Fold these 4 entries.
Entry 1:
Amino acid sequence: MTTEPIVLTEALATFDTLWSPRIVARVNAYDVRIAKVAGEHVWHAHDHTDEFFLVLDGELRIALREPAGERTVRLTKGAVFTVPRGVEHRPYAPEGAAILMVEPSGTPTVGDRHDAVPGHVDVTTGPRL
Amino acid sequence: MTTEPIVLTEALATFDTLWSPRIVARVNAYDVRIAKVAGEHVWHAHDHTDEFFLVLDGELRIALREPAGERTVRLTKGAVFTVPRGVEHRPYAPEGAAILMVEPSGTPTVGDRHDAVPGHVDVTTGPRL
């Protein structure tokens, strides 16, 4: 990895693929990834890890299937939220968004359990920028 | 912790103390902390963990004592940088800044080794917001 700071807006400008995270930093065995998103991701769950989201631009919604039922959280620009491990969730962004995520290195974008993955969703553990 | 998203600008508006991180989210055994900073922190090192920085507002500089010598990285708004474990560093922000950090829960703000801690620097592992 680079040993110089990375400006996230500049990093986001280097790619256009949606739902295809790029690693911008590491913290011990965790990756910090950024992604451009629009439309719907897929219902999935990470059985062994929480997943942290920060919205850099636009608005992200995350549908959650919790024991009490299904609900949706709405993250405006500059909002943070952690999806707890094991919780089925489906991120989506009707108007598009740029997001930052923190999760263990090697965590697949579609989790350990998921619905059929549509063609526009990249199944990846996040290549480096 | 709350199970609703937290808007970072609103979270930052709830406190004024400088160099005194507040935990806004957890990711497994890691904390996501935010802080308002201005002036100088203290030279310190974390022997067992990297430390991730994202600048939310303003500009942060981090002086680093690396094997090749001392240098300073400058993080403008929206820039990210990870200080590797073991590297002595001193964050400072001549004009003030708001920052987000990711590190293992329980990591003290002044690391495992540090210079004398000035009164304006809070020695904490980050209380919840």
Entry 2:
Amino acid sequence: MGLTALDKQIGFLREIDRLKTVVRQSPLLDGSRKENSAEHSWHVAVYALLLDEYACGPVNTNRVIQMLLLHDIVEIDVGDFPIHSGSSSELQAEQESRAAARLFGLLPQQQGNELLALWQEFERAETEDAKFAKALDRFQPLLINVFTGGGTWTENSVSLEQVFSRYGPVIKKGAPLLWAVCEQWVTQHFVGQASGISRQAS
Amino acid sequence: MGLTALDKQIGFLREIDRLKTVVRQSPLLDGSRKENSAEHSWHVAVYALLLDEYACGPVNTNRVIQMLLLHDIVEIDVGDFPIHSGSSSELQAEQESRAAARLFGLLPQQQGNELLALWQEFERAETEDAKFAKALDRFQPLLINVFTGGGTWTENSVSLEQVFSRYGPVIKKGAPLLWAVCEQWVTQHFVGQASGISRQAS
């Protein structure tokens, strides 16, 4: 006897439990440990729920939330590619596409196809919804770094210019008003760090 | 100068980061550790995205998802009340109401009021959306226990009758078709356990 629709949905829900074991580079705000991709997905979905007024254009908040709930599940197969790792984005995209096909393929066909299409829309970052979702996915770790005194920037010796080039375009494209705030935060962070260093050196 | 709307929203988003440190009784499916309330909230929101066809009545899936994203944030102040702890539900409700007022009160007033109302709707469990959300919030840990060979039931010496009485009414009310599957799982689990015990004893 074949699997019922519910069997397949439960199979998918069991499989994605593994996202809780994918550890990201970003710490919790209390610095106690690194966050994982499941709790990151929860957090950034709440960002979407609250911050839609800052989107670049008219967005369907609920579609953005759905995208963000699912955007990282491919990491179950391929892991997290940290923004500061310099890994090949072409190889990454290929691996993630295969992972998406496998994971969404666990679902009943129509549902799996619909959610795969939503994931692909996020990846392509062309629609207003996807641009805003991508912006939030970049804004959340930036905020963590700012409010943990450097976070992954300090760990990876990332410069102000690198922060601007690695986060700026994506956040600016999807949420220009949030990027304006980020510019202030980031500048203050690096200026503060530089003055701290010069104080230490003097 | 007062806080801007964005200042308040960011204050809220920073505050709820703490949900990642609230540890629940339920383990991950791989048994490696207990899950926390942030990753639980993510997981159960995806349950809602996939399983709305099993709701007792017509539901607005996106409202259910929003409820589930926010339903546990009160635990930041009051912790998780485990289903098998036998704690006073009146005291719990009072503490959680105070926590909700504090947390949603961090947001701009209108947004805070809207989301507080959504949280209260979930707690009252009277609308179709809230009944379904409550059912999923009970279904997810049941599924974990079934697929980890007992989980919190084994730890707390919970009987088949207790599982039926503690999970049954809520799941049945919001998602009767899911409860039908749960009944089979739970019965099989306890029958298997009983035959294991009798085999050990013989």
Entry 3:
Amino acid sequence: MSAPTESRPLNIVVWNENVHESRGDATVLGHYPDGMHTVIAAALREQHPGASVSTATLQEPEHGLTAERLATTDVLFWWGHVAHQDVSDEVVTRVVEAVHAGMGLVVLHSGHYSKPFTRLMGTTCSLKWRNDGERELVWTIAPEHPIAAGVPHPIVIDRQEMYGEYFDIPRPDEEVFLSTFAGGEVFRSGVAYRRGLGRVFYFSPGDQEYPVYHHADVQRVLANAAAWAAPTSERRQLTADPHPRDWFLSGGSGTQEA
Amino acid sequence: MSAPTESRPLNIVVWNENVHESRGDATVLGHYPDGMHTVIAAALREQHPGASVSTATLQEPEHGLTAERLATTDVLFWWGHVAHQDVSDEVVTRVVEAVHAGMGLVVLHSGHYSKPFTRLMGTTCSLKWRNDGERELVWTIAPEHPIAAGVPHPIVIDRQEMYGEYFDIPRPDEEVFLSTFAGGEVFRSGVAYRRGLGRVFYFSPGDQEYPVYHHADVQRVLANAAAWAAPTSERRQLTADPHPRDWFLSGGSGTQEA
Amino acid sequence: MSAPTESRPLNIVVWNENVHESRGDATVLGHYPDGMHTVIAAALREQHPGASVSTATLQEPEHGLTAERLATTDVLFWWGHVAHQDVSDEVVTRVVEAVHAGMGLVVLHSGHYSKPFTRLMGTTCSLKWRNDGERELVWTIAPEHPIAAGVPHPIVIDRQEMYGEYFDIPRPDEEVFLSTFAGGEVFRSGVAYRRGLGRVFYFSPGDQEYPVYHHADVQRVLANAAAWAAPTSERRQLTADPHPRDWFLSGGSGTQEA
Amino acid sequence: MSAPTESRPLNIVVWNENVHESRGDATVLGHYPDGMHTVIAAALREQHPGASVSTATLQEPEHGLTAERLATTDVLFWWGHVAHQDVSDEVVTRVVEAVHAGMGLVVLHSGHYSKPFTRLMGTTCSLKWRNDGERELVWTIAPEHPIAAGVPHPIVIDRQEMYGEYFDIPRPDEEVFLSTFAGGEVFRSGVAYRRGLGRVFYFSPGDQEYPVYHHADVQRVLANAAAWAAPTSERRQLTADPHPRDWFLSGGSGTQEA
């Protein structure tokens, strides 16, 4: 029952659709010359020096998410925006099943509409939005939550896209952050879920047009989220099996799994 | 903002895969000569005399769930077991989208593994089971919940299939019932969710081999669930739309929708 | 199991400490010449024409909340601010026990620090605040919740005291409203709880220095909250009693209570 | 923001009313010659070798819970049954305020009716019971929860007092265990809450008449609960303070606390 990462490094993969970057959007490349994923990965490496952090993109074979690679991924970060429909259903199923079996998933910003997130939520994940470069304040409403550790109250992000309620998500298992915007809107910007044996965290700050992933406090949240989402036991499939009467009496203490 | 059913009858559709019955399973036909759906529908009619209650089955064109019919369905009951994979994805998407837009859904027993339920939950919905005809007790843990109104504590079901934890569902928004079985297992047997603008209730008692849907208390739960799941406003799509600054100042009181 | 108010009018009592008014605070009396409670009560009367709505204040014997009166109160509204400590513990215990037995309680604004509310929450109920007459926007995050029915998204309150997070309350059973303020803060401004057999709703808009209780949308929320908090069964005490084996087999269907 | 126990041992205090033992109940002394607290403390010492584990009882001055001692207690265990009313309100307030400021609290069995627990819950905490020495099965419904780590599914306790629903507690923040009893009842036997900055865990197995605290799996749960409830930041009071406009802009990153 020991954590899988006790005897090896924490294995983090940062996935980015990498389309804004690939097609040469000047604003995006200004902030992220090598892609958002590289900045996010560098931040995670700095804060988790013992971890193995790598990246994957839509353009790679199987989007860089082969079954073999996912099998040893502890936490997957997901950034997508304009190419959600280009992600193959086979890879999405693979990601969803990995979460069910214990993999952590951290979904970023416009990933709210991604296939893996909407399939894990079961809702439309729709929201209100406005790209007006306005100030976002990220308030902590779970002060002792590990994802909020070391994070100021509020985080001040000078320029950001606005995401506003109603955000059509299931009731979160844990609400960590609420954001307000200069225009007056509010958004549940940091929400946590269990899905099967895996943990899912959605964090909304991070539009491609603003340097949000360079923000030290945002990086701290991402690093905290990676630690929080990491599995605590070996990955396993949940199945529906018949159980004869008194099946639980046959084993010794500690032998059955939930 | 008035409830859609204020000016017309509550419209309930009971869907059944109807496969055990169609292929002539003697035990099932013994309890339900015209199919489980007819017994459930009759019970709902009796308890909601003003409602319009009809049935639909897998074998009908589009499984009896055309877009036109679903558009005016307030609450859909769903019973499936051996033919989940035979339900067309197109119809499933239609059902899921109707829930997102406000339709109520009541999922019964082995429907835990149905396509609409697993898509709305985002988990595997796996569980433990044993068909040994043992006593199930259904305990209320939300005494004032409308779905538990008029229901004894516990409901005693003399013979039932056992469903046991771990039941791989998201944390319920509301837990109404917990069941215990003679063999010692426990199951979260009555759980409620919001998905989009619609309500979803899962209720596990009801195997095809036992006359559970003839049980007066079970019928009461189903009738309560229909009332609880009925939409309270007109169906509408949730979408992600841009909103200019101060969009909310233009309208008068009561004009914006969440 | 029928609702207690089916055969008689819904009985609402609006309690106000009535201290700002009694001591002649000019601003408060400007908005509420006869006290905030009279304005709230008038609004409830208008929206629930069939209900019996009365008021009670700190200055009355037993603060107007005798055992006899509370025994038939369906929903109690509570407004307090500077005199929380002047409310007798005996009356507070009476209120708390009435909630446990099924009475609804709607706590307003600075009532977050009242004895009944803090005793029902079990937390400090502390928060951040600033009285700067700034705009509050009240956003709905539970679009189909009955307390939000007919309410615009957002409610716009031109001038209000700011209440901000961290608001030290238990995780709400239901979150209905989130407020933002011109200064950038956020607040969980409409939160719902079950405590025993009773329902509790806290709604923060409503400082004594601003005419918030004259606001049509705020009045609508209060009326909705009264309907939501009203008990659905006869009041009863929850106790710890011994139960012999098979106690539940002796009665007929529907005879046991949770 | 580092955990307070990083630079010193985890400090656990096991409190027992110690009345059954003091008055010489033969059955209790048969299982626990030196009191239940000594067996619990020994188990915690064994599983947390680096921790400082001590005991306190009702009979000591200030019940062994002086302000000074509580100030450095990370996790307090609480066992009470027949002497809840003999615990001084002053000490209870001290315990509750310590929880609000970050101390962990683990409440055991008949402690459901203790003053600290009922004050933190805000409900009656009533339940059904029967002392018939029947088998209890403790099922995990949160398989990856740290309190369930290494625990079999189910834990089998051969003889126990029955505690049954309806258990009048607020909706738990996390449900970890459900128990069933040979007589058919069910109980939410492992439930977790946040109250202020502190964590509270209630675990029902453990009647004085049965050797439950000698059970290896129960001991594992208690040890897990101690680790889970331990504070992650320095203790601090939550207060309601005025905040001028833009107060959050003055500090540098990481300087404000929620």
Entry 4:
Amino acid sequence: MTFFSDAVFAIAMTLLVIEVRVPEIHVHSDAVLGQALLDLLPKYIGFVVSFMVVGRFWVGHHAVMGLLKGLDRRLVWINLLFLMAIAFMPFPTAVFSDYNGLRVAVGFYAGWLIVLGVMNRWLIVSALGNPAMLRDDADPADVKLMRRSSLIPLIIGTLAFALGMIQPIFALAMLVVGSPIVSWLVRRDRRGASPSA
Amino acid sequence: MTFFSDAVFAIAMTLLVIEVRVPEIHVHSDAVLGQALLDLLPKYIGFVVSFMVVGRFWVGHHAVMGLLKGLDRRLVWINLLFLMAIAFMPFPTAVFSDYNGLRVAVGFYAGWLIVLGVMNRWLIVSALGNPAMLRDDADPADVKLMRRSSLIPLIIGTLAFALGMIQPIFALAMLVVGSPIVSWLVRRDRRGASPSA
Amino acid sequence: MTFFSDAVFAIAMTLLVIEVRVPEIHVHSDAVLGQALLDLLPKYIGFVVSFMVVGRFWVGHHAVMGLLKGLDRRLVWINLLFLMAIAFMPFPTAVFSDYNGLRVAVGFYAGWLIVLGVMNRWLIVSALGNPAMLRDDADPADVKLMRRSSLIPLIIGTLAFALGMIQPIFALAMLVVGSPIVSWLVRRDRRGASPSA
Amino acid sequence: MTFFSDAVFAIAMTLLVIEVRVPEIHVHSDAVLGQALLDLLPKYIGFVVSFMVVGRFWVGHHAVMGLLKGLDRRLVWINLLFLMAIAFMPFPTAVFSDYNGLRVAVGFYAGWLIVLGVMNRWLIVSALGNPAMLRDDADPADVKLMRRSSLIPLIIGTLAFALGMIQPIFALAMLVVGSPIVSWLVRRDRRGASPSA
């Protein structure tokens, strides 16, 4: 299961680059190509932000799986739903990159982050809430911190959505600078631990 | 072999998103983009249904592989044929999404599910029918249930095909609500077991 | 290394489906869509033949890796060259599917199979010819058979190329029916063994 | 982590072929198709060079991971940044293939190799500089050589960039012939060892 999940994460993250397409230029000059490459800035930002967002979910997923003995039938299906939401990410990313000035595009993207956050939390709470699934050597403090940390992406997604409705660019700012701040707030009573690595 | 199979499943499932393409809109307004995103509904449905269908086959495949010591030459080739049918899924999914009102599209999609069902059953019956391949600790009740369960996708595919010929939308309804019902009917004499997890 | 190689094989095989694109039809009728799906026959054939060709190389690769303790620096690079040739397969397959009536297309495809055959043989002969790399429990008869079997794809590729120059369709016939015949000829003095599974 | 990283490398390398597209020819003749396939030479070169460049980074990454017990939180994130740069490679490769006569395209490609080289070195120096992460049986001579070798891609990328600014084709020459020369210079005091295999 871990192997299969890792492959879905890796593919979804690598496929994000497909949306960054080579610009067609009609005059073959350095100036024109240079400008065309600069104009793709929203595509680069979409790639980087989504790669990091999915990467962050992967780090959390990997850490949770490391605390479990296995997955029962129910967890397998919750995991598949979560992976489906991950596999879908290239689409909201492309919408966001292409129409980043429109509230609908930003809302669609941030809305999908909320969906991911909900499924991530559902998976983590279901997995860690079942003592029969936990490894015997799982540290209760790690388990508690991981459950609490699963709120982070949900909070960030919701804030990005709300801010994006006020002004699209605020959503992006939230995603870039909000993550470390919210993480710090949620984790501040257990500094120094590295539960997700 | 398990690793290779898992990778093919993961890639085929993640590639399904490639068919969901960003709409081109000619007026940059929230209303137009919102409508364009809504118009992609058949694409979303195709993605979700196919992801879950392939995911279900993966769950079964994973469970069967867990009961085997290894694969002999013949099983390796049957497995490759099955994986080929899985790898092909993005194409019938795209045909189904693009032309969901046409019987030929629905029949093509449901027909491919029948092909998958046949190959899945062929693989499972061949693998579990060979005592030399079974792990010594494989529970005979699990083996029996798994052989029987391998009929489920075949039944669902056939019903979806037949219903789709009457009315295309019925095929979709069958795929969404039929799976739990048929699963329940086939498994009802062994509730509580979780053989595929 | 095995894991990485398996992933490259799995991705190259699954990407073959990307070349099979949904037909655009201008009249939405079952007859028109049905005809359009039939017209894609060369695409389906290209997908199936290439999937099986690459699958066959994978089976052999997997078997060889199972006889080795590890790969030294030189083998790592030969393996990377072989994987590069495998990763390139979607391109000759697409050329072959699109222009199957032209000798250049058939020659390009069959020529690439010869390249694959040469690299495959190079890898196998290098790997199995180095006693320091062989596992201690590797059966010398298996090793000998595997070295000899590595000629099969080379022979088939060369025959397909030669026949394709006479008449394009002959190349396809060779690939479909030639493989079992040549395999039988090469292996006939060791029936019943299953070295590649 | 190794598994996930390997998958990202494998996918990024295999996706490079997507940029090599079947030429559309308007006269179906062997001569026209032959010429069209020859005209794709820059695409083939881009595929081969990038496959080998990424393959080389993979070989190094694989070797470094083999010396570590695990990755702490900080290394996980440096690794993710490195993998992001790897996953992005299909884009600079496509720009380079399409506009190989323009300094901006060559500079963009070689510039990205410098980015990869910097991240690769950052990851290797961070990982090997932390004694708590090193495996107990890691040979100090291997560690030292690996740290030093991590300068190679950085040097090659910088030389390719500089030469490409003088004349675009020089960058390519550097990438093809420079790698073995620079490798030899950096390693010459430890011939015969095979630290990256």
